[in-house]
Amino acid sequence: MSDHIALVPASNWVELRTTDADWAAADPAVLGTLLTHAHLIRAFEEVVLELAMDGLVHGPAHSAIGQEGGAAGSIVPLTAADQVNGSHRGHHQFLAKALGYLTPNGIDPQAELTPEIDTLLQRTLAEILGLAQGFCSGRGGSMHLRWEEAGALGTNAIVGGGVPLAAGAAWAHKHAGTDAVAVSYFGDGAVNIGSVLETMNLAAAWKLPLCFFIENNGYAVSTTVNEATAEPRLSARGLAFNIPSWKVDGMDPLAVYLAMNEALAHMRAGKGPTVIEADVYRFFHQNGGFPGSAFGYRTREEEQSWRTRDPLELLGTKMQQRGLIDAAGILALRNRIKASMAKAVAALTEADPNGKAGKKRIRPELWPSPDFRNVGVRGDLSELNGARTEEQASFSGKLDTRKFIDVVADVMDRRMSVDPSVVVMGEDVHRLKGGTNGATRGLKDKFPDRTLGTPISENAFVGLGGGMAMDGRFKPVVEFMYPDFMWVAADQVFNQIGKARHMFGGDIEVPLVLRTKVAMGTGYGSQHSMDPAGIFATSPGWRIVAPSTPFDYVGLMNAALALKDPVLVIEHVDLYNASGIAPVEDFDYQIPFGKAAVRRAGAEVTVLTYLSMVAHTLEAVEQTGIDAEVVDLRWLDRASIDWDTIEASIKKTNNVLIVEQGSIGTSYGGWLADEIQRRYFDWLDQPVQRVSGSEASPSISKVLERAAAARTEEVVEGLKQVMRDKGAA
Ligand SMILES: Cc1ncc(C[n+]2csc(CCOP(=O)(O)OP(=O)(O)O)c2C)c(N)n1
Question: Average pLDDT, whole number, for the chain?
Fold first, then answer.
């Protein structure tokens, strides 16, 4: 029989329950503020549900009625410098954080509401209704409420999606030398999603001041906690990552307040993240104004028993017992808030002239203009004004023949030397002489705090980078070891980072650089051999650069780092060990924004290509003797691509061949061919032709891998096909 030694978690795990002594000792001003927050949230949510029942809320209205205690209790202790983000059910936290910002000394429940609070209620309601005066100009709605100034970083429609972003804010707080914290709110359903668990691990490993606040309302839509997990004590999640964890009754706002104060002491002392699980109950269904029991997944009796534990009642009763307010005072508070909400509703809606008596409509003049739909998908590029740009042909600095990969490391070394905000992160970027290829050579030694080797958690660490970028104090350069890992991190890359600027109103900046290398030809097989250009080019928000020479790499990386948008920098292993003309000491120029490079002038066909396929194309042109114009696109996304150069070339050659290496399915050329045919149909002698890889991803077998990817031979064939088909269309 073996010995069995019981092991225990390294971190504390406690349930905090209030005592009579806690209630007796609680600061009256804190209790008054908690009561006012809770009533403001309740009355606000009641109006949202009324408007939803009237059909005026477009989309879901996830009300927090019943859950006010968790938000008020945890946010009242925060300072204006602390930040929060949340989930689809986030009105309550948004309002509490905004109220805390507007009234840093708390709110007296017996005082009049200030005009600032009236405005807050109206603008929040306006956002939920999708109106121009809302905090995100009506773009965000109920599920994307952001008011950065107040420390409300944004609610999120992807369950768990905001959590990595909050870690980025926490990283920035810590490394800026402040004691501010971030709090990320999510439901019981979110504790089982990877982004949350990955971020718990990352935040603990890096000791980030981040509170994972679980609002356990017992249901993810209709699925119970017990159905979804074998460990329904959700605060236990923290223990797996050595995070101290609290469980509290979220219907008791004082318990939440006290637990948050303990968690804040831990985080502000630099000891790392915390978990708080607050048991709460939503009095209504997932969204809208019907009770959950109407949908059959819970009983009316259960709902009734939770309603007897209403956090507003508890606070009111306890305050009355201490003589801090009386029933009339509470009623007056509620009436004042209802009056403010009525004013907000009157400002945003009016009688519907075409409807039955009493039917309301949104005031038509308050909608955003339809022209606004695409404004702010990316920034306005003003950040590039005055940038020093260079082309190799006119460069006056010293040039030499150098290995591409050395130049990759050099330019980052230079940027990190002159810009203390640049932070490099990724798997093994801090070891192995600069990651798996040497791209980050020397950075860890020179910049130990800004060269971060990450755990294998692409979703969490790129999301953390996104949060850092949105924070703005640091400039993340994130590396994905292989492009295919973008699928692992797809939520953060595409739903969060790519959409953030637009979704939150069009004017927030997301200056993140994502580096990755195409590895076709190295035998790494189906899951490591994609070219990500096509997927990023068809996803909103991203800019893409793809340097084919070391000289361009320097200038495109510098431009990427200067931009206030997320930029994908695509590299290629074939190029890493190739040599080319590159600067030796001047790494401070940019390649002109949105400018392609004509690598060979020609009259017969325009070849549009990028990255390693530029050299293959030039080789193919040489071999065939076909007089092709070879355009190295350099900037690939639809907002940065050089239409002027493309147009001039097409008008000259009247034939187009798009050349890329990767699989046809997720290829880059699809959208480009479509766009070219729309724009230049009259100038084309034949349909746009394409060279790409096959349908399947390249396999490990050398022969199959070669057959699946395009290289010089395929371009030769493509050029010949164009010539055969010329004029035949
Ligand atoms: C990744 C993802 N999966 C599914 C959904 C659809 N969805 C929205 S809310 C929700 C339930 C979430 O439950 P929980 O996290 O407990 O939060 P609650 O609604 O109870 O506040 C689901 C399944 C989503 N938005 N995101």
Answer: 97
Q: Are residues 221 and 301 in the same domain?
A: yes
Q: Are residues 362 and 473 in the same domain?
A: no
State the distance from the centre of ligand 1 to the C-alpha of 229, rounded, in angstroms. Answer: 15
Give residue-wise pLDDT tens across range 278-320: 999 999 999 999 999 999 999 999 999 999 999 999 999 999 9
What percent of the chain is predicted at pLDDT more than 90?
A: 99
Residue 682 lies in a domain: yes
Buried-state track 190-228, b at ≥16 Cβ within 10 A, e below 16: bbbbbbbbbbbbbbbebebbbbbbbbbbbbbeeeebeee
pLDDT tens readout for residues 80-98: 999 999 999 999 999 999 9
Residue ranges lining ligand 1, Cβ < 6 Å:
88-89, 157-159, 186-190, 217, 219-221, 286
pLDDT category, 729, cuts 50, 70, 90?
A: very low
Average pLDDT for residues 341-369, to the nearest whole number? 96
Residues 572 and 610 occupy one common structural domain: no
Q: Which ipTM score applies to this complex? A: 0.99
Q: Are residues 267 and 363 in the same domain?
A: yes
Closest protein CA for atom 8 of ligand 1 = 159
> What is the number of the ligand 1 atom nearest to the C-alpha of 157?
25
Ligand 1, atom 7: closest residue by C-alpha: 159
Ligand 1 nearest atom to the CA of residue 221, by list position: 11
Give the atom of ligand 1 at the shortest distance from the alpha carbon of 89.
21
Q: Give the SS3 label for residue 659.
A: strand
Average pLDDT rounded to a whole number, residues 22-34: 98
Q: 255 and 227 in one domain?
A: yes
Q: What is the distance, to the nearest Å, from the Cα of residue 236 to the centroid of all Cα atoms in its chain?
A: 27
Distance 530 CA to ligand 1 centre (A): 31
Q: How far is the CA of 466 from the centre of ligand 1 (A)?
A: 22
Q: What is the pLDDT of residues 628-675, one digit of tens each?
A: 999 999 999 999 999 999 999 999 999 999 999 999 999 999 999 999
**Which protein residue has the closest C-alpha to ligand 1 atom 18?**
187
- The count of residues in the chain is 729
How far, in Å, is the centroid of ligand 1 from the Cα of 572? Answer: 39
Let me know if residue 4 belongs to a domain.
no
pLDDT (0 to 100) of residue 728: 53
Contact (CB, 8 A) for 272 and 204: yes
Q: Which residues pair with 583 in a beta bridge?
A: 399
Cα–ligand 1 centroid distance for 88 (angstroms): 7
Tell me the CATH number at 405: 3.40.50.970
- The CA distance from 567 to 561, in Å, is 8
Query: Could you read off the pLDDT of 187-200 as tens digits, one per residue?
Result: 999 999 999 999 99
The CA–CA distances, whole Å, from 512 to 285, 424, 461, 593 equal 38, 11, 12, 17
Distance in angstroms (rounded) separating the CA atoms of residues 499 and 466: 11
Mean pLDDT computed over 538-544: 97
Quote the ligand 1 centre to 94 CA distance (angstroms).
18
Q: Does 476 share its domain with 608?
A: no
Ligand 1: distance of its center to the CA of 305 in Å? 24
Of 372, 407, 425, which residue constitutes the final position of a domain? 372
Give the model's confidence band at 727: pLDDT under 50 very low, under 70 low, under 90 confident, else very high: low
Atom of ligand 1 nearest to the CA of 491: 1
160 CA: nearest ligand 1 atom: 1
Are 636 and 701 within one domain? Answer: yes
**261 Cα to the center of ligand 1, angstroms:** 28
Q: Per-residue pLDDT averaged across 494-503, rounded?
A: 98
CA-to-CA distance for 470 and 263, rounded, in angstroms? 25
Centre of ligand 1 to C-alpha 66, Å, is: 18
Q: How many domains does the chain have?
A: 3
Q: Which of 92, 159, 184, 285 to mutate to test the pocket of ligand 1 (most atoms within 8 A of CB)?
A: 159
Q: Give the structural domain span for 713.
A: 597-725
pLDDT of 435 > 80? The answer is yes
Phi and psi of 122, rounded to 5°? -65, -45
- Whether 673 is covered by a domain: the verdict is yes
**Is there a single domain that holds both residue 561 and residue 413?**
yes
| CATH code for the domain in which residue 623 is found | 3.40.50.920
C-alpha 455 chain-centroid distance: 19
How far apart are the C-alpha atoms of 479 and 424, rounded to whole Å? 8
378 belongs to a structural domain: no
